[in-house]
Amino acid sequence: MGFFDYILIVLAAVIFGFILTIVIRTLKFVPKKNVKIFEEEIEFDNEKAIESLRELVRCKTVSYKDSSKEDDAEFQKLVARLPYLYPNVFSKCSFSELADRALLFKWEGRNHNEPTVLMAHYDVVPVNEEMWEKPPFEAILEDNVIWGRGTLDTKVTFNGVLFSADTLIAKGFVPENDIYFAFSGGEEVNGKGAVNIVDYFEENGIVPALVVDEGGAVVEGVFPGVSSPCGLIGIAEKGMMDVEYSCKSAGGHASAPKPHTPVGELSAACCKMENNPFKMHLTKPVAEMFDTLGRHSNFLYRMIFANLWAFSGVLDLICKKSGGELNALMRTTVAFTQMSGSAASNVIPPKATMVSNMRLNPQDNIDSALEYIRKTIDNEKVEVNLLHGMNPSRISETNCEAFEKVASAVASTWKGTIVSPYLMVQCSDSRHYGRISDKVYRFSAMDLTSEERATIHGNNERIRVSTALKAVEFYIRLIKQC
């Protein structure tokens, strides 16, 4: 046997061993034991729960970056209605209003060392009423659907928290540990309400053993090869930054332009960024999501997720080409959203600008992102400046009792759901709690279709009655574990 024959045999053995390893790892990549499910039937006044939510929606608590546009009377109206909507909560819990429309309730438990914090915000984004099929603040109930701004984001969870507590208090339930209800009236404009609540906790030595805020939901069709509904619990959220790119010139008449105008320079910079996306990072939230949901996928995707050591490049290519949610989980994203130039069509602009909105992967930060942008564009004529931003949140633990409580409440409320950690690509008030707890979880207690998710911050926001009731059921199940 010649030397080359020997090389071919060795090469064939290596290839066979590689394929065998891939197949064995794929066959062993089976679903893990699911979380604990409680079969107890949850009962409460369904009609009253729905009417309470509708009352909240009728309050026009719209927040603006320009606070002069806000109607403070509407915010006050909502707060004034709370004792009538949730009388048992006000009879049993202490209540205080902190600065910047922060509301804080304390429900005292048998013990005080492992408190829970249940969050929501009661401000909503503005509406274009002409584009709505139903009035956005009348909470019209039709065909078992409630129409209105805030039904999904997040008055449904605001109501779910307080109505579940009100129900349990009426039945004589006392939680094992203290429970705080922490609400912000300015989340949509990055207000300071949640910051003030966290400051209060820090000043008083209160360290939450569990924090739950808005985030993931029960959804279908969001993970490749998985047909079952998935209950996604965010254990971290990406950072966010807005970046301005500017280019100057001497201006002048458009009849005799130089080879590149400011708009042309910026267009080239835009293309460079879009053609050279940020590096893929497999962070803990995404790795745990792949390890959980990938086991329920079809054989092809199971093979990829079971052998990322071999197929990470394939996954990276799929993400780059497809974009969308899967790509957003894997890397820092750049979305160019604004551009401006000359005021006249025949005048070369003295200055042109464009803006990108970026969502930072937990492996990146504001400084590293700006460095990558400048290096990629590589053009001294284009000035890159940060408008504002926030770094990614702290990553919460999953191998702990706190996560198991939330996961169990999800699985018990929505039977047949696969519960998984994930990385939240939006921002929320819960990021502020990272400085006092590593048990912060982001789950909006709803099962939502893709069509319903699209109405959040959009036109015709609405919620099914059954979904709103499930939110109350979820919080009752969660509170009973706290």
Overview of the molecule:
- Helices cover 39% and strands 22% of the residues.
- It has 482 residues and is an alpha/beta fold.
- The strands form three sheets. Strands 1, 2, 3, 6, 7, 8, 13 and 14 form an eight-stranded mixed sheet that branches. It has a four-stranded antiparallel sheet with strand order 10-11-9-12, covered by helices on one side. Strands 4-5-15 form a three-stranded antiparallel sheet.
- Helix 1 crosses helix 9, helix 2 crosses helix 5 and helix 10 crosses helix 11.
- The radius of gyration is 26 Å and the shape is globular.
- The protein starts with a helix and ends with a helix.
* Structural class estimated from helices and strands: alpha/beta
Gap from first CA to last CA: 72 Å
H/E series, N to C? Answer: HHHHEEEEEHEHEEEHHHHHEEHEHEEHEH
- Helix content estimate: 25-40%
Radius of gyration: 26 Å
Strand content: 15-25%
**What is the overall number of helices?**
15
Mean pLDDT score: 94
Total number of beta strands: 15
Specify the biggest β-sheet: 8 strands, mixed
Low-confidence stretches: none
What is the 3D form? globular
Keywords:
single chain; 482 residues; alpha/beta; eight-stranded mixed sheet; 15 helices; globular
Brief description of this entry?
The protein has 15 helices and 15 strands. The protein has helices at residues 3-28, 46-57, 72-85, 87-92, 155-170, 193-203, 262-275, 284-293, 299-306, 308-322, 324-330, 366-377, 401-413, 450-454, 465-481, and strands at 94-98, 102-107, 111-121, 141-142, 145-147, 177-184, 210-219, 230-237, 239-248, 333-340, 351-360, 383-390, 418-424, 440-447, 462-464.
